Known about the structure:
The chain is of the alpha+beta class. It contains 5 helices and 19 strands. Strands 6, 7, 9, 10, 11, 15 and 18 form a 7-stranded antiparallel sheet that branches. A 6-stranded mixed sheet has the order 2-1-3-4-19-5, sandwiched between helices. Strands 14-13-12-8-16-17 form a 6-stranded antiparallel sheet, with no helix packed on it. Strand 16 (267-272) and strand 17 (277-282) form a beta hairpin. The two termini are 22 Å apart.
Amino acid sequence: MAMKRLLLLLKPSHISKPPSSTTHPKILRFLESRQKVHHDAINFCQAILREKLVEWKAVQRNNLSQPINDVDLVITVGGDGSLLQASHFMDDKIPVLGVNSDPTRLDEVEQFSNDFDAARSTGHLCAATVENFEQVLDGILEGQNVPSNLTRIMISVNAQRLSTYALNDILVAHPSPASLSRFSLRIKKDDQPCSPLVNCRSSGLRVSTAAGSTAAMHSAGGFFMPILSRDLQYMVREPISLGAVPDFMHGLIKRDQAIHTAWTCKKGVIYIDGSHVNHSIQDGDIIEISSKAPTLKVFLPHRLM
């Protein structure tokens, strides 16, 4: 399919800075550098698009409120957060290309390691930076680059499907991180049990896709998954193991399975790809989590293929 209409989705170019009276001058200069690098990347991408035989429009990601359905390609300029935000408004038909506008510089991290964390944007799912943006874009426009289908998570609460799919992961937990989460879980296939019922008292339940297995899931002790896997990985966070079944605290949810969770706290929240998108739950709610969501077409960096 020829790509004629493009949407350029932009991370805001303004980075909030702490009061200068309480901040180390190196940190202020670092933040100013980040803002300039990102702003320059936006201008660079727009200049490249002006040279191409395509129609395009630029939109701030925070102004996105309706499903994206009138373009042939979405280009996000920011980091993984911008690509994740775009994914919440996309179906399985339109592909997305992530441009990491502010990549981490290892020499900078080493230089400032004794003063502060100088990491910039990870851009794990971003196939382009300003260094190769035109090359990657030309490959897409000429049909040489093909997107990959990434698994997303479908969530239902009391048999009502949520409208937002998770590309990275979800966290089901009490709204207060200091409070205990109480729930039970069981893996099912075709509504038949594949595991025993596990009653949990913990700090919550995390479920990730293959794409999200390198993020919070891995930090908590999970394992990397092949990027194109259709399985999901789940982990009960910090379980209190009284009466629990250890073998089922962490594992895989196969593509033809779902994990059913009964929430038994007064309050709860399902956090989708971070904290900005969430859904409140309450005592007695039944949550079903599976990989039956529409996939997302993503142009991936070569290192992930």
